[in-house]
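Database export, one record per block. Field names are fixed; values are copied verbatim from the stored entry.
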Amino acid sequence: MKEESGRNEEPFQLIFQKHAAIMLLIEPVTGKIIEANEAAQRFYGYTGSQLCAMSIQDINFLPPEE
């Protein structure tokens, strides 16, 4: 992992990937999914690479206002 401000991102990545809560990193302007943890992959039924090829609108069935 890359170093940023003297800190290693590896602990964050490990916590993010292995956490039981469904977590997605989403680009706020476009809604593109940047990263999905293992819980999100199980919940949505897609691999991480499939989810990263999607936008939140592809998996969110709520109206945009919500």
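Remark 1: The beta strands are 3-4, 7-8, 24-26, 33-36.
Remark 2: The mean pLDDT is 86.
End of record.
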